[in-house]
Design brief:
The complex is a heterodimer of chains A (472) and B (1506). With 472 residues, chain A is α/β, with parallel strands linked by helices. Chain A contains 19 helices and 15 strands. In chain A, 35% of the residues lie in helices and 14% in strands. Chain A starts with 14 loop residues before the first helix and ends in an 8-residue tail after the last helix. In chain B, 33% of the residues lie in helices and 18% in strands. Classes of the chains: A alpha/beta (472), B alpha/beta (1506).
Chain lengths: 472, 1506
């Protein structure tokens, strides 16, 4: 085995102690807020190897256990440590169709890296970063899995929605000789990956690469095609052996906040999509671009979407950007890293404030927001109202299900909140041969959860089509 | 059916023979023999009534002066030869007379004249109750031979008549002790001192003999049989034949092959040796066949029990040829064996190749030879002794008392090797098949070209997972040894698994514990051999040229080259035929196997010599018969048809990958195996750049690791050669249905039923479906480590996380989540198939015994400081002491600072490495646990890797920093049950207050062993399950050895109850216990007490990383790394306390639900369990009712069903020790105390009691570190006691001798002198005016100074085998040693002024030895792996010479040795002969670390060897 750096020997049982956890350097906060490019620099191979070698290869791989798709993390870390990058990439792809994306957008600090045995003071292995870089290498080198022995089964499945759930489903199907045709209303694949997540977290070129990759594997994408509008669900049911729905949740939660109808109040997703549409010139008709330059912006919410918004606003050169969250910092649902990045970029955070009303001036210009405090124990006056000035307010309270009109007539049941009901672990909806997964089933959740559901449904489809029994 | 089977009883003992070498018969000699036997009473078992023993007996010549007058009074002819039969008959007159009639009839058929029967006078009063109940009718039959017959002809016909009669007599009680015209055997279930009283014949003045063979038995059960008493017809045996299964099977095969003109009717016998009963009796049977067949005793004994000839470097080639030739016709009968035998004219004593039993002999000037387990068994006059020595390993001492000749080993061997031109025969007819790199390369290329495309089909079909290729095969190919793992096996056994598992997983390797020792296959490989012979076997009575037509391979593992060569052998002698193992997919598996057997028989009858079974020709329409099923069934059928010896079974199979797989097939009868799929997988790894070396080297490495693995598996059973392992079936099956067992594995036990042929077929089908579906991935399996969707693990991340959450929050609702995750898991253990039957009316909380009472029953399992960090070890001790339970020191010693504090481990372990075991350590124990075996690796030793041996650990273990420390597989002072009894006695002498506990591993027959252990006066027995944890263990041991504790616990409980010993024994269960429900089920199945290993570890923060062996435990628990311990260990005793309290609370919850007030009430209440059907077809085929039946409370309360806290006191009260202690106490205030005593061989462990007393009252002076430098004066001590003894000391003289105690003995000593000595001084020297030369005679026995850590021993004479094994600090001078001296030594100084035995200093890593090696033999005898030998004269280090001189001077002062005086007087002339033996330069060790690191890179992560 070759030596990576001076005196560094791969396989030292104590490497996790000798080498500390190191993430790739970020660009300086100042420079990165000038554009929408990714903030992490590409990591040197040798650094990846050393970081991967820190893995203890525990008897109980907590990382893999915690990962919703149970990536073979210790195994591919070993391959990386041994500099077998292509093999590592191949192994990543066995459980995950989008490793470079998960590597970027997964909240590792809540999943694999949080569960990492070393995350008790020794510094977790930089799993996400290794995943991202190795998958990038593979895609940049036009690596493709060997599917030469896959036999065409003659079956075909329609997939509605080219988001993570749909992609995951389609990829597993084509790997098993089932044709997969993916319909999406947007001009590019990825769903929220493309349109919801800003470029500094996930550059759009990556999705393009991934699309080409998937197309090479045999996935067919039919874009700019909305089911129910451009094509009927019945047609899909008739033409295909099965249909998988991975349409996401797009209805923003507005919290019934008084004053929300003001023009200066923007739904997070509208803001993000508009931004991407404008930057990438997708020319989507329904999309509106919001320019927050020189404005005082308040973002309400504490999840990853809120972070995407604050950091986008910073890049649009807003005058000030404040994130207001109703609970404490530790209770924030999103990734810690993102909060940190946002802080570095100059975002101000205020916690324990619950918005109660949005105030406008007489000319309907947005002026401020009223909040009440939520940390009652430290509060002297329970009814004290805090008022914060703002010209724009972004609501990032999350998303609700937006069931399509045709669900009902197709026999797809939803629950009271509009989420599609499925049999656990199968993705089977109440309609024959229609499967569903992702946010539209579980509510707004992580990318990796959607992938897990897409794959779960694919396994069920393969089973139901008698392509494979008892897979894995 | 029950789990415990008293017919599995094992025995060991004391034995000996006394003979007048000139043939002068006398009554005096018989008297002496009986008194000698009496003086070895302690070697047998004896009941508290003082009457009941396990049997003893004596063989004497057929005394003409006694028997002739009786015969004549019955009307015998004066001129004809007279024979007498000593016969046990059924007490029922009618049955007895029936038997007598049959015997008479058979005798008459031989034209012999039956003169009449005599009731043998007996005195029943000396019998104990058990003996009386089973007392047979004892009669003698008198027979005349026709005129003119010779003595030997007469013997032969008596033999045939007796054997034919035995075949016809069905009465179990009928037993012929002897039937001979040369000798007679008197034996019975009495204790030695009563033998003469029981049989007044023996004390009659007319009863005279020149030969007396005697034996006293220690059986593992309490209801022994009369007929199992020894001597048998020809021999008496001390020890155990480990190879008995193979020997019996091969004897069965040989029945039709043996032919001798002397008994042409031999093939008529139904069997040659008995297939059940005592191993010794089978050996006796075989010996008898050989002798009556015309073989002399020399060849017969050397053939049956050969020395380790294979690897002896300096053996004469003709002698080697003799052994090699004979090994082709008879596998060794191996195992600890001290054998004495006689045919009435010749006598012989021989020892097994390892010398595992003691045999000391003395010849006095009146030509009386005494050989016995001990020296000093009768009161001869020391001045009359002309020769005194021991019989060494593989040696033989014989005498012909008709001719008055003595034969020693060399003379016997010289005579044997020259009888036939063995060497030439072998040279001309025997072919050696060797590896051929060129051919191998061609083979490999061939695969790569053709077969590798389809490898995934093979891998899926034969269930070879990614995990196996990466974690098992890759490691083997890279490191040439199998991977190491830690934490043990937490997966379900194969039959419980939801996955389809390789059939080999159902096989659990048997292992030696207590009644026989495992061998150290690494350090003692000189005694082991895997050599395998191909070709037909012939009649061994006929020694001719063509019997040597054999092809020899060095090991039963074939590579491509060897398989090719086998195919190309001369078809005249080695006809090669092939049978496919693949059968049509729509056929039933059972039918396919039967057809295969039919085909095999036909082929063999048509001349096939090499039967090649292969599953390589797979295709989509066929399924493979698993090779194990095939070999088992074919082998069985070939034996039944009497053609087994005509053929060798060669197997080419994809199922075989690791050493265990090989062992299974060989155990089932395969001759050699070709693991093609494993090799292909290595090719694949090679092509994928996963190997460190070239392909051929990687394949070689793989073969090497297999070889090591096989040797290890053999050695686990104490077997030395593969020939004696083949066909031995040394496995227990867990989870196969009886129908499978009957057809394929009929000689193995499967006690709980399980998978049927259909289940196996379905598994096969599943593999097949995936194999031929390209879309299906090869499994990751998760057998070794948790993987999502793979095998279930009991300590999976959920369980670990939940437990840690519970102890961190200390919230019972969190504990409940943990308990639920465990108690409701998918079936993973046998107890999971047992549900509780809850009471209709649960008890109130207040009615159930208090938590405190329950906590007292909890112990933490043994984990050494060394394996654990001191912080973790102490936290555990504090926790256990706080809750009122006990923590276990493990085997690494303990810092005396912890004694008498809350950090003291109440259980102190005594394991085979004896690290830190001194009197001072032992007296601070409440319980002393002898670790006989460990659940994760029974039958194996352990190693503490050098990187864990820090300054602190090294100090505790008396070793040097950074050296790997070895715990040998056996305790070198326990080779047999009576040895364990002795060790327990030693411990009870040094610490009379402590309970002595013995830790056993669940395995077949563990009940029998436990009963024996209880008879050896243990107070507590731990039964560990196979799922026990470990700091480091080879993977295959973790996976394939040891049984679920449910079986072992229930069996032990039953055995103890049946033997009326249950109330004296606190029975503990250990292995995978996690929750209160586990405790409840354990109690119901028989446990009084509960050992927890991993549970408390997890509570302390262990995350089950399985990297304990790498010293990098990230939780700071299993590491000595400072940073990790200081900054990353967060374990608090409170967390462990919290865990145990939760468990106890849960126990109380269930007690209430079951309506039981206490755990005592629950023990044996199997009516409270119901058997569940399980989730899978295989599980539903299990039948666990035998477990419940075994654990059940007996209906009649003959004895208590649980422990009653009574002490199990030895019969021997140790009177001399009592006296010494009393005398010492009366003089305690005096500064220098001097005492004097006479001592006899039955005074055992002398000195221990006073040492223990001093250690506990005066402590240990740390200022004196004897290991550092030779220090002439032992000053600054609190106590000075000198005791002088005269006579012969019993075993364990000066055991655990303590600082300030000086023992001096004029006379001889037996085994274990100075064992565990930590200070003080022992000197032993002969009486004055003796005729023999002391420096050439044995003065002390075997295993002296074992585990000594300090003090000095001077002995003016030689020691037996295994001198100073694991010495870590004692300084000693003596004048010669036997085999294996200084093994595993880590410190101290050993000066040997005479001969040195084989395998000297094996595995020695510290200290030094001076050897006077005048004949330059040391180089050949020493095991040079870890040591180097330097000439003293050429050595630059002057300190050495000075040190030696000082020691010699002190030796002379203490012993007056003339030989040493001579050396000292002429030191300049002698100095050239001296060698210094030291570990290979110690300072290299530190440098060696980085080297090892580089090696480790390649190894699979997680199995990194450092």
């Amino acid at each position: 085995m070759s030596e990576i750096k001076n005196k560094y020997v791969i396989g030292d049982a104590l490497s996790f102690l000798k080498e500390s956890r190191k993430l790739a350097p970020k660009r300086k906060a100042k420079s990165r807020t000038d554009d929408f490019s990714e903030i992490y620099q590409i990591k040197k191979e040798s650094d990846l190897v050393i970081q991967a070698d820190r893995c203890l290869d525990c008897g109980n791989p907590y990382c893999e256990w915690k990962c919703p798709i149970h990536n073979y993390i210790p195994n591919w870390l070993e391959l990386v440590a041994n500099q077998q990058f292509d093999k590592a990439a191949a192994l990543m792809h066995q459980t995950n169709p989008l490793p470079e994306i998960c590597g970027r957008v997964c909240p590792q600090d809540r999943l694999c890296e949080q569960a990492c045995t070393l995350n008790t003071g020794l510094g977790a292995v930089t799993i996400g970063e290794i995943e991202k870089n190795i998958a990038d290498f593979a895609l940049n080198n036009d690596w493709r899995p060997d599917l030469s022995r896959v036999k065409n089964t003659g079956k075909k499945v329609a997939i509605v929605g080219a988001g993570p759930a749909g992609i995951a489903c389609a990829e597993l199907l084509v790997r098993n000789g089932v044709r997969a045709i993916v319909f999406d209303k947007y001009p590019e694949i990825g769903g929220l990956l493309t349109f919801g997540i800003p470029e500094f977290k996930l550059e759009k070129s990556i999705l393009v690469k991934r699309r080409i990759f998937l197309e090479d594997l045999g996935v067919k994408f039919v874009l700019n095609t909305e089911i129910g509008k451009d094509k009927h669900i019945q047609d899909l049911q008739n033409e295909f052996d099965g249909v998988f729905l991975g349409m996401g949740t797009y209805r923003a939660v507005d919290g019934n906040l008084p004053g929300r109808e003001n023009k200066g109040v923007i739904a997070a997703l509208d803001y993000l999509i508009g931004n991407v549409n404008q930057q990438k010139n997708y020319q989507m008709v329904d999309s509106h671009y919001y320019d927050l330059k020189n404005k005082n912006v308040i973002v309400l919410g504490g999840g990853d979407t809120a972070m995407d918004c604050v950091r986008s606003a910073v890049r649009q050169k807003a005058k000030s950007v404040t994130c207001v969250y109703r609970k404490t910092e530790v209770e924030m649902p999103g990734s810690r890293t993102e909060v940190k990045n946002a802080k570095e970029e100059g975002v101000k955070f205020i916690f324990n404030l619950q918005p109660i009303a949005i105030k406008s001036s007489s000319n309907n210009k947005l002026e401020s927001i009223d909040f009440e405090r939520t940390n009652f124990d430290v509060l002297k006056h329970k009814d004290e109202v805090v008022n914060l000035q703002a010209e724009s307010v972004i609501l990032a309270f999350g998303f609700r299900a937006n069931p399509a009109k045709w669900f009902e007539q197709s026999g797809i049941s939803t629950d009271t909140s509009g989420l599609v009901s499925t049999l656990p672990n199968t993705g089977k909806t109440t309609a024959t041969n229609i499967y569903a997964g992702g946010d539209m089933v579980s509510g707004a959740d992580l990318v990796v959860t959607a992938i897990a559901q897409g794959r779960g449904a694919a396994k069920q489809i393969l089973n139901d089509l008698e392509v494979l029994n008892d897979l894995f | 059916m029950s789990l415990y089977n008293d017919s599995q009883a094992k025995a060991s003992c004391g034995f000996g023979l006394i003979a007048q070498l000139k043939g002068v018969q006398s009554q005096e000699l018989i008297k002496t023999a009986i008194s000698a036997l009496t003086r070895m009473t302690h070697r047998g078992a004896i009941n508290s009534d003082g009457k009941t023993g396990d049997g003893c007996g004596i063989t004497i010549q057929l005394s003409q002066s006694f028997f002739t007058p009786i015969a004549q009074s019955m009307g015998a002819s004066v001129d004809s030869l007279l024979a007498v039969g000593q016969i046990f008959l059924n007490p029922d007159e009618a049955i007895a007379s029936q038997s007598k009639k049959i015997l008479e009839k058979e005798l008459r058929r031989e034209t012999l004249q039956v003169i009449g029967w005599r009731n043998v006078p007996i005195n029943k009063d000396v019998c104990g109750e058990v003996a009386k109940k089973s007392l047979p009718k004892i009669e003698q039959i008198f027979i005349n031979a026709p005129m003119g017959w010779g003595k030997d002809d007469f013997e032969r016909r008596l033999f045939m008549a007796r054997r034919r009669a035995a075949d016809k007599i069905s009465d179990e009680q009928y037993y012929v002790c002897s039937l001979s015209n040369k000798l007679v055997v008197y034996k019975g279930l009495v204790i030695p001192k009563n033998l003469g009283h029981f049989y007044p014949d023996l004390t009659s003045e007319k009863m005279q003999s020149a030969i007396c063979l005697f034996h006293q038995r220690f059986s593992t059960n309490t209801a022994p049989h009369w007929k199992y008493a020894q001597p048998f017809r020809y021999l008496a045996h001390n020890g155990e034949i480990n190879t008995i299964n193979a020997n019996r099977t091969w004897a069965k095969c040989r029945r039709k092959k043996l032919y001798t003109p002397l008994i042409p009717d031999l093939p008529q016998l139904s069997h040659l040796v008995n297939q059940s009963g005592s191993d010794s009796s089978s050996l006796d049977n075989m010996l008898e066949v050989l002798l009556v067949g015309g073989m002399d005793i020399f060849r017969a004994l050397r053939l049956l029990v050969p020395p380790a000839w294979k690897k002896r470097k300096n053996m004469d080639m003709h002698l080697r040829a003799f052994y090699e030739f004979n090994s082709m016709h008879m596998e060794a009968w191996d195992g600890p064996a001290g054998i004495v035998m006689t045919n009435g004219e010749k006598i012989a004593c021989t020892l097994d190749r390892n010398g595992l039993r003691p045999a000391r002999y003395v010849i006095t000037k009146d030509d009386i030879l005494t050989v016995a387990s001990e020296v000093g068994v009768w009161e001869y006059n020391e001045q009359d002794v002309v020769e005194k020595d021991r019989v060494g390993p593989g040696e033989m001492l014989a005498a012909d008392i008709v001719k008055g000749e003595i034969w020693r080993t060399n003379k016997i061997d010289d005579m044997l090797k020259n009888r036939q031109p063995y060497y030439e025969w072998l040279r001309e007819n025997t072919i050696r098949l060797r590896s051929n790199r060129k051919l191998e390369r061609a083979g490999a290329d061939n695969y790569i070209a053709d077969d590798l495309k389809n490898i995934s089909i093979y891998q899926k079909l034969f269930n070879l997972s990614i995990e196996e290729s990466g974690q098992v095969l890759k490691v083997m190919a890279n490191n040439s040894q199998e991977a190491t793992s830690s934490m043990g096996d937490d997966t379900p056994v194969a039959v419980l698994s939801q996955k389809s598992r390789n059939l080999y997983d159902y096989f659990r390797q048997q292992f030696a514990q207590v009644t026989n020792p495992p061998i150290d296959s690494l350090r003692e490989k000189s005694v082991m051999s895997l050599e395998t012979c191909l070709g037909q076997e012939h009649n061994l009575f006929q020694e001719t040229n063509n019997l040597a037509y054999r092809a020899i391979i060095s090991q039963p593992i074939l590579n491509f080259a060897k398989l090719q060569q086998i195919k190309l052998l001369d078809q005249k002698y080695y006809q090669f035929n092939e049978l496919s193992l693949n059968y049509p997919i729509n056929e039933s598996l059972e039918t396919a196997i039967t057809k295969l057997c039919d085909a095999a028989v036909t082929i063999v009858r048509n001349g096939c010599v090499i039967l090649h079974l292969t599953d390589r020709d797979i295709n989509e329409k066929m399924l493979p018969i698993h090779a194990a099923l095939a070999v088992g069934a074919v082998n069985k059928r070939l034996i039944e048809k009497g053609v087994r010896l005509d053929v060798n079974i060669i197997v080419e199979t994809g199922t075989v990958r690791d050493a265990h797989h090989f062992a299974v097939l060989i155990g089932l009868g395969a001759t050699a195996i070709y693991p093609y799929l494993a090799l292909q997988t290595i090719n694949q790894l090679h092509l994928d750049n996963n190997l460190q070396s070239g392909l051929i080297t990687a394949r070689d490495n793989y073969f090497k690791s297999l070889k090591k693995g096989l040797l290890k598996i053999l050695s686990k059973m104490g077997i030395s050669t593969i020939a004696s392992y083949r066909n031995a079936c040394l496995f227990e099956i867990i989870g196969l249905h009886q129908s499978v067992m009957d057809l394929c594995f009929y000689r193995m036990n499967s006690r709980i039923g399980g998978a049927t042929f259909d289940d196996l077929h379905n598994d096969n089908l599943k593999n097949h479906q995936s194999a031929y579906n390209d879309q299906m991935h090869i499994q990751r399996s998760g057998q070794l480590k948790y993987v999502h969707g793979g095998e279930y693990h009991s300590y999976n991340p959920d369980v670990v996380s939940l437990l840690q959450k519970a102890v961190n929050s200390a919230d019972i609702s969190d504990y409940k989540l943990f308990a639920k995750a465990v108690n409701k898991r998918p079936v993973a253990t046998l107890r999971d198939l047992m549900g509780l039957k809850l009471a209709d009316k649960p008890l109130q909380d207040s009615q159930v015994e208090a938590t405190g009472e329950i906590l007292k029953r909890f112990d933490s399992a043994a984990m050494s400081i060394g394996a654990l960090s001191p912080e973790a070890h102490e936290a555990l001790a504090i926790a256990m002491n706080t809750i009122g339970g006990r923590s276990n020191s493990g085997e690494g010693g303990e810092d005396p600072k912890r004694f008498n504090t809350l950090k003291n481990s109440k259980i102190k372990q005594v394991a085979s490495g004896r690290f830190g075991v001194s009197a001072h350590y032992l007296v601070h124990a409440e319980v002393i646990q002898i670790k006989v075996a460990q659940g994760a690796k029974p039958g194996e030793g352990g190693q503490l890797p050098g990187n864990k041996v820090t300054m602190e650990i090294a100090k505790l273990r008396n070793a040097s920093v950074g050296t790997t420390l070895i715990s040998p597989p056996p305790h070198h002072d326990i080779y047999s049950i009576e040895d364990l009894s002795q060790l327990i006695f030693d411990l009870k002498q040094v610490n009379p207050k402590a309970l002595i506990s013995v830790k056993l591993v669940s395995g077949p027959g563990v009940g029998t062993i436990a009963a024996g252990v209880a008879k050896a006066y243990a107070d507590m027995i731990t039964i560990a399950g196979h799922d026990g944890g470990t700091g480091a263990s080879p993977l295959s041991s973790v996976k394939y050895a040891g049984n679920p504790w449910e079986l072992g616990l229930a069996e032990t409980h039953q055995a103890l109850i049946e033997n009326n010993l249950r109330d004296k024994i606190c029975l503990q269960v250990d292995g995978g216990l996690k929750t209160g429900l586990d405790v409840i089920k354990g109690a119901i199945l028989g446990a009084d007490s509960f050992g927890f290993g991993t549970g408390p570890m997890v509570a302390l923060g262990c995350k089950y990383l399985r990297i304990c062996h790498l010293n990098n435990c990230a939780t700071g628990i299993a590491t000595q790394n400072k940073t990790l311990r200081e900054f990353h260990f967060h374990g608090l005793p409170e967390k462990v306390i919290c865990y145990f309290k939760f468990v106890a609370d849960e126990v109380r919850y269930w007690l209430a639900k079951l309506g039981a007030k206490s755990l005592d009430e629950l023990i044996g209440r199997t009516d409270l369990l119901e058997l569940l059907t399980g989730d899978t077809s295989k599980q539903s085929h299990l039948d666990l009712s035998d477990i419940l039946a075994a654990a059940k409370r007996p209906d009649s309360q003959i004895s208590a069903a649980h422990y009653l806290h009574q002490r199990n006191q030895p019969f021997d009260k140790g009177l001399l020790n009592e006296q010494i202690l009393k005398d010492f106490k009366s003089l305690e205030s005096t500064k220098n105390i001097s005492l004097k005593y006479q001592i006899k061989n039955y005074d055992r462990s002398v000195g221990a009691k006073v040492s223990g007393y001093i250690a506990s009252n005066y402590g240990f002076n740390k200022g004196h570190d004897s290991s550092k430098k030779y220090d002439k004066n032992i000053n600054d001590q609190a106590v000075r006691l000198k005791i002088e003894f005269k006579g012969v000391a019993g075993q364990s003289f000066g055991v655990w001798n303590h600082q300030g105690v000086e023992l001096s003995l004029q006379g001889d000593a037996n085994d274990y002198v100075g064992k565990g000595m930590s200070g003080g001084l022992i000197s032993i020297y002969p009486t004055g005016n003796i005729q023999y030369i002391p420096s050439r005679s044995a003065i002390i026995g075997n295993t002296c100074l074992y585990g000594a850590s300090g003090g000095k021993l001077f002995a003016a004479g030689q020691a037996g085998e295994r001198f100073a094994v694991r010495n870590s600090g004692a300084i000693t001078v003596l004048e010669g040693v036997g085999d294996h001296a200084c093994e595993y030594m880590t410190g101290g100084v050993v000066v040997i002024l005479g001969p040195v035995g084989e395998n000297f200093a094996a595995g020695m890593t510290g200290g030094k030895a001076f050897v006077f090696d005048d004949f330059e033999l040391l180089e050949q005898k020493a095991n040079l792996e870890t040591i180097e030998i330097i000439s003293l004269a050429e050595n630059v280090n002057e300190e050495h010479e000075e040190e030696l001189k000082q020691l010699l001077q002190e030796h002379i002062e203490k012993t007056g040795s003339r030989w040493v005086q001579k050396i000292v007087d002429n030191f300049d002339n002698y100095i050239d002969g001296f060698k210094v033996v030291v570990p290979k330069v110690t300072h290299k060790n530190k440098k060696a670390e980085p080297l090892k690191l580089i090696q480790s890179i390649s190894s699979v992560r997680g199995s990194r060897h450092v």
